[in-house]
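Example complex used in Figure S2.
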Amino acid sequence: MDVPGLDGNDAALRDQGALVKTELAAGGLQVSIDHDRCSGTGYCQEGLPALFTVQDRRAWLREDFDLATADREDVEDAAGTCPWFAITVEER
Amino acid sequence: MSAPRQLWSDLAEERSRCPVTRHEDVNAVRVTSYAGVKEVLRDFRSFSNRFGTVEPGPELPVEDQVLAFADPPRHSRQRKLLTAALSASRVERLHDAMQQTVDGLIDAIIATGSPDFELISSLASPFPALMTAELMGVPHELRERFVYYSHLSELSTAMPGVYDAELAQWSEMIEELVRQRRAIGPGASDDLIATMCFAETDGQRFSDREVGQMVQLVNSAGNTTTTTLISNIVYALDEFPEQKKLFLSDIDGLVDSVVEEGLRYDGPIQGLGRLSQCPAQIQGYDVPEGERVFGSYAAASHDPDIYERPDEFVVGRDWRKLPPHMGFGYGIHHCIGANLARLEATIALTTLYKRLPGLQVQPGFTPEAVPGWTFRGWTGMMLRYETREHS
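Predicted assembly (483 residues):
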């Protein structure tokens, strides 16, 4: 399809080799996504695209995100927008 | 309030001229840009749901403030419980029952021997209603009546008061189902009514009235919307024959994309209202306290700032890169039946187009739009397919 944004050309991050996961921990913080609850609204990705990415109607965490130096409030704000309560941010 | 089905070109004209302004026809500040609708739906403190969302009026009695008719923190408590019961994985368990139900309805269409049938009454309406009854654990012998009452409750949004006697009987039926589950105790069943009866958040359970109201709301908000989604997509595919051809070349591979585009291109909810709780602003437009605000989801999902070729039905948009459409609303009230509706629409469309060759809108048929500002759908949809005798 010759329409910008409709081509689907940039392959899923996952296809480039295990770059996404459902749990990420660093700097005393753990973020997890419950795929039983996630319904793929994409609000987390809108809020913090450096951390969250939506593929196949599920949100994933990008492994290349530097959680250790991230602003905790930014992470919590993006997680808090999930209307399916699928994202947990905890200290560990 | 009644209005003809709004044309995309009219919505585009309004959006480009003044995307946030008061309109006497809808008696509200109408918002038609994606950014504006999103701003309203995000700001749930300024724009409340507990005064109703079809025609916001007086504050609803507290026991009627459920889900779409509630604000946080009450809303969050109710929603947390239901999201678990309506998650994608829980809904997936209904897959086989859904397939059987659709196959049964299509068997009945084929059994008539006629190449012509009306989609809504023969499949698009009974299917989601039966699945909701299944999800609720309504006993088989009560299902026909349950579905009938549910249908009346939806009609009553357009004709308040007309069906009060029947709807009182529906409430009694639901109260009885609730009483039975409470009497048996937790753990006996995992249907949605039992889940609501015994769910606890912060040590609190829902009252019988709250459960009853939620049961009614899940029906009235979930059934006709899914009916409409299915029939709107069937109609849209015929409006865009190239896209239909593409879909038919790989039904299983493209059906998810077709459903998603259906939700964006012609979702069942034209728009919903809020009531402002304080002086507020939408995209810089001043809204006084106590004002009705109508967010046009249809217009927002067609905003050219967000979507290429907004007024075309395009199979295969890359939703990983696009902002979420407003087909399920936006924000804390994101449609709680989204997973259910997606799966139902997916199964219905896949099965219809696989089992009924040459399926199309009956040549010469012009559908009639559902009246009112809330819904965007058709009152009937005559279809034709190639039976063996006619092909």
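Residues 31 and 58 of chain A are 15 Å apart (CA to CA). Chain A touches chain B through 26 residues (CB under 8 Å).
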